[in-house]
């Protein structure tokens, strides 16, 4: 076939593409959008199918059978099952006016410049092999078509005097520049581009199907015949999944392609940035997998027919789509197939280079220019031209990089292998992206660490070996490792072997990437802007803040100068429109002299983001107002609802616990008050009883005596004695009550002196001796003779001993009661212990027995019921002496009342 | 035939005075020092009346009164409760248990003797 014809057809095809793009934009300008429908959207996503699909799948199938499939399984899974991720990414892109994947990641982790440029770098380096792949396919297919019957000017012949591949690269660069850099706002929709790419998806599908139909039904008698003959020629191994049973690689490839459909710069651009309507994704969810299925139906038939047609010859299986029609003399079909391959390659190169140039411009070059102050914002001048120039240059450089890689490495690799190297690079974005939209804890340092580590491992285990295998690096680097260190062999890092090269690289790079991302994120603290962006991305659906960046700007810049600066990036007309729309929305009229408020500044940043990405936009606005005043807003944001709710509920818990405690205390106090009340009632009743009992005798005998005449003399004397005794008893009781009242009121008259304890105790015991004898109680005395004197009121001390011993008499065992009285000197004073052998004191009474209303019911029935005042009086007396009185039970169970009294001035123990 | 009276009281001087008063009024007097002894004495020989102190050891006057009024054949015993406690609730409780009268200490000897005689006459009037 004539080279001129092929060139003419190619140029004509590209011209048609351009016409379509032009038409698409014209329709858009008229408001009759061509591309705002789900089918065009889906077809534009099919930019996924490049010349790798068009040529490479057949090559792969001819070698390893069904192993080409996982590359389509991954995207199918993503669209069918994992569309929740896609929808979320698309929503975030719309809300934040994201222009590229670099913009996305940079914006997510706090509009971080370093992160954006790293992602750009990885994307450019990672995509380079992929672009090389397209260049290789175009050059190879051209050579084959032109030189099939002229082997002398075969693949590396040079009919134009220069390398055809370079020509192709430059031509594609110009085409991409024409397509993609006509407008400056990269988040605006490029309807022409989308229309052209959708058209290309139709062409490549039709071309592939045409070849497939011809082979299956023209050369063979349908699928049955084809597979029958394949079996007859020993090609049955191609029908089964994985010849080597290498399911590990299947999984690797599926995972890689899942990452690729989401994060390849061009896929991200087409799927997320160019998306017009989220509902279009519903159609794409079934239609895109269907597209993949249809374009793969004839892969195996074409591969088989190629194998059969070129059996025994060293024919490039990657080019069967082209060479099989040529072999059977179908030159028109071959030309159509060439155009199909061209469409597959050009669509990829155009979209990828546009997407990458946006990233290079917005995330790498512009921030650097601004940082190094090579661009003076204060100077007048239209910066949008500068932006466009940067983008155009980027496109050219990217394609030349691709060409460079093609020259260096592509000879030794198949199309598919080159593509997979790119996929593995793109997969490095997965942790930062997936983590970024589902985990608020991810930090920019974590993302930087993860991406860097993953990228370095990718370089070392995939990219560098590809250079080595092409002879650009010494081959022993692969076999012996870096510096001859065996553990550093790039295909068996740290001794890990048994994986294929790709799975090996993916394993180590993902381990390093995810590990670095998660650990560094967990380790450090999030800065306020990282926290805010994390929340706005993860909670994008319920972000009630909408477009309003909570870190609002404050500064003194007029709206006119703000509009002017924005205009220099996006064009003055667009800037004017943007500002007017904002003013309309706010119901205000701008005269240009007012100071831009924080909302206005946010609006300007938003407008700029669409053109130059969020990180750069932030730098520009920041540099205009000199100072970023975020502190108050940061504080507000940090105290966001969640924190407040948690804090509030914690406070409520504390309050409620306090209330409970208070109420518990109140209940206790109330209960105690009731007890006291009841005790007081009992006490009054007891006092009444005690007073009335002697009164009863006195009155009765007085009346008997006053009757006169009916008593004997002896009775007369006896009754008078009783009256006297009961009167004394009454007096004693009244004295006790009054004493206690006085002591409590502090009006007691005390006569304090140094008192000898031994004689005092003996005197008290003598007073109750009658009672002790009467009850047959054994009294055991344990008194040291020479006890030091204590400071006390002697009479009151006698009273204390009498009261306590009387108590012991009342409560000791009957009969066989034993009372033990001991006194000894202790460092702090005299210690007196009076114990009985009764039933002891109930634990619940121990706290009360010195209360004045307390009366135990456990006493002997032989004894008169006490007044309930004895021990209370004792406590008053002892505490006045400066001592303590307390009760416990002895080892044998009886009660022990102990008290101590400080020694007198001269009575310290020697 | 003289009426018999059981004095159930633990305060010796009051027992002595009651014994003297009841003897002078012509009653047969027996004494019990606690509630259980009082019931045993009634069992031994049923008295016509009981002077029953409330604050009795072992079994208080309320319990003794209740037993007397619930035991068949004993219900016609005249029970006069004596108490140093002046609370109304005690008086209500005593009368509720079936006591025939309630006298607060200190009491008038004459009044006590008169009430006792009146109650015993009323009882014999009913039964005879």
What's the layout of helices and strands?
The complex is a heterodimer of chains A (910) and B (128).
Chain A: H1 3-29, H2 38-45, H3 51-64, H4 70-80, H5 83-96, H6 101-108, H7 113-147, H8 164-180, H9 191-219, H10 223-232, H11 247-263, H12 265-273, H13 280-297, H14 299-309, H15 320-327, H16 331-371, H17 383-409, H18 415-427, H19 429-438, H20 444-469, H21 476-480, H22 501-523, H23 528-538, H24 559-570, H25 572-586, H26 598-612, H27 614-624, H28 631-638, H29 641-707, H30 713-745, E1 752-755, H31 757-767, H32 769-774, E2 778-783, E3 790-793, H33 794-811, E4 818-826, E5 829-836, H34 843-846, H35 870-881, E6 885-889, E7 895-901
Chain B: E1 4-8, H1 12-24, E2 28-32, H2 35-44, E3 49-53, H3 61-70, E4 78-83, H4 88-96, E5 101-104, H5 109-127
Describe the protein.
The complex is a heterodimer of chains A (910) and B (128). With 910 residues, chain A is mainly α. Chain A folds into five domains: 3-427, Sodium/glucose cotransporter, CATH 1.20.1730.10; 428-543, no CATH class; 549-636; 641-741, Orthogonal Bundle (Helix Hairpins), CATH 1.10.287.130; 752-901, Heat Shock Protein 90. Chain A is 66% helix and 5% strand. Chain A has a five-stranded mixed sheet with strand order 2-4-5-7-6. A two-stranded antiparallel ribbon of chain A has the order 1-3. In chain A, strand 6 (885-889) and strand 7 form a beta hairpin. The N and C termini of chain A lie far apart (134 Å). With 128 residues, chain B is α/β, with parallel strands linked by helices. Chain B has one domain (4-127): Rossmann fold (3-Layer(aba) Sandwich), CATH 3.40.50.2300. Chain B has a five-stranded parallel sheet with strand order 2-1-3-4-5, with helices on both faces. In chain B, strand 3 (49-53), helix 3 and strand 4 (78-83) form a beta-alpha-beta unit. In chain B, helix 2 runs parallel beside helix 3. The radius of gyration of chain B is 13 Å and the shape is globular. The chains are: A mainly alpha (910), B alpha/beta (128). The A-B interface holds A 685, 688-690, 692-693, 695-701, 703-704, 710-711, 715, 722, 725-726, 861, 865 and B 11, 13-14, 16-18, 20-21, 24, 34, 55, 57-58, 84-87, 104-110.
